[in-house]
Structure formats: structure tokens, C-alpha cells
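quick one before i forget lol
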Amino acid sequence: MSLAEQKLIGKLAMLYVLDESHQSKVGELGWLHCTGKVGSMESNKVVAAIETAAKKNQVINGEVYRETHALYHAIMEALHGVTRGQVQLGTVLRTVGLRFAIVRGQPYEQPEEGEWIAVALYGTIGAPVKGLEHEAIGLGINHI
């Protein structure tokens, strides 16, 4: 039950969100993926934007609860990284401007381990005043 070295789903998602040229590596593996951008003072809008992109680009099937549920947990884990464990934005006068990458595939050597989904976030967080933000990054991985 080991991860395949060339199929580190989290690493690939992080590289992809930082540099879209890594999309080709994800594509070579035959994995589902998409990217997008979101900016908001509300965490629910960040979650909604990522879920919408995943459904629209057929990374997940929105009719299957376990797929939406797995994506949700990956998003929340990634948001914990961006927000340093406090998934609050507007209520504490913070805003984010993020790029995201969603990657779905089979990172284990054994096919029985099934599919996993990774959400990588990169961008800025800070006070809702232009120029008063700083970089932030987050990663969430969950099994489907």
C-alpha cells in the first residue's frame, strides 16, 4: 500500500496551482483536473466556487454524494492552511484572492486503494484594503 512516486497527488496539485505548465503531467496520468480563481470575504463563496468548477469540468459527479462530500473535505482542509486554522474571513475583516487547482486520480500503486481528490489553493489573504495582504497556500487531500 504505497504511493507511487510519480503520482503524488498533493505535490502535483500544488505544482499545478503555482504553475499551470504542470497541467501536462496531470494529463499524462489521465487524471481529471481543473483550475480557477476566486476572491471573497466569505468562506462559503470560496467553497461554492471550487465545487461549481469541479462539477462544471466533470472532475466530480454532483449527483453522487460521496464525491461532493470528499471534495468538500479537501476544500476545507486547504482553507485551514490558507486561513491558519481559523476558517473565517469577512467576520474577522479578512479577504482572500486565490487560484485553485483540483486534481482527481489514483495515487497508490494498488488500484484497490481507489480514487483521491486534492485541492490546492494559492493567493493572498489579508485586510480588505488593497496592498495589506500577504501570500498564503493550502492543500487538502481526501479519498473518494
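fyi The first strand starts at residue 32 and ends at 40.
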